[in-house]
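Write out structure tokens for Putative lipoprotein involved in nitrous oxide reduction.
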Amino acid sequence: MGKKMVAIIFVLSLTLLLSGCSTQVDTSPQPIDSSLDICPTCNMSIVDMRFAGEIVTQEGHVEKFDDIGCLALYLKKNSQEPAIKESMIYVKDYNTMEWIKASEATYIKAHINTPMNFGIVGFGSPEAAQSFRKEHEDARIMNWQEVLTAKQTVSF
């Protein structure tokens, strides 16, 4: 076998080896199984999907939350962990129950019953949030940074 053929085989082998090592981790939101998944903040089952949230790390580790307020508290407590800083964060749209990026959602804070009574609801559009707000006199519109910095007043 000539030197050129050995070089070609070496390059092809190296390419195959490296492509096998660089598998992409799925950082998309994962389904919630209410019979198995437990919120790490309050240790409650996740039953009402309208208020659910998720953190998916770059390594594929998933934390699931029953209340957007629980998600916010968890992030505050663990904000310095490198895995958390690089994570994808999702919440459910209250109306459609589709996953949306937490940073892109519009939130309403009101006196409404959420699983842990934080009263925070996420929407995929500002229009949907405005429509919901009209039904709740005390409602306040928030963005994700405001949710993260708001004082959460629930004790476990």
